[in-house]
Here is the input.
Amino acid sequence: MIHPSAVVHPLARLGEGVRIGPFCCIGENVSIGDRCVLDSHIVMEGPTSIGSDNHFFPFCVIGVPPQDLKYGNEETFLTIGSHNTFREYVNIHRGTKGGGGHTRVGDHNFLMVAVHIAHDCLLGSHIIMANDATLAGHVIIEDHATIGAYSGVHQFCRVGAYGYVGGYTVITKDVLPYSKTVSDRNTKAYGANTIGLERKGFTPEQIRNIRSAFRLLLQSNLNTTQAVEAIRQSGPAPEVEVLLNFIETSERGVTK
Here is the structure.
């Protein structure tokens, strides 16, 4: 069943019972196994090989080129197994020549909204990835692992079998099998974003004013109220007034 609005390349290979919904776009080098369901607005490019009984919810992007500046349009691959669920906005990229050239996803995985799987990642089976979980390139996720919502896994890291990564966690080293791993939630501010301010057109004097205010806020022995009062006594510039007004109108407190 192919909706009339879908665009399917004549050389794409479709198995028995495949359903392709409205406004999908299926490329030349794509093979889709039996009974797969593509709801709508799904883009698939290749070379990509997909097993049977997979369900792709709207706006998935599957098998597009990797986000790697070294990629030179060489032929690389994506292979997906069977019985997987890909919720809305999931995106999975093909491999790179330097990383083995192949991204792989196993069987019976559940990838929730906006999951990102970058080039050369290797996923086993029975994995759960919650909303907006993100894998950088060359990551290995072993069977039955769980990656919590909004978590990020650094390049070349591994998550062991049955490992559990809590939500909002940043993984920069391998996660032990069977373990529960969660980032420290003690978020800190580390001063003014001087490079970003330069790029946005702030003058050197404006940046100096802002950095001076941050030194009182973050590096002195003053509490927030005392630091704000000290900054006000110096006759703050307009750009610093923005900072002070933000602090004074905060209902939940500010990160220091």
Notes: The first helix runs from residue 194 to 199. The first strand starts at residue 7 and ends at 8. The chain has two domains: 7-181, 194-248. The radius of gyration is 24 Å.
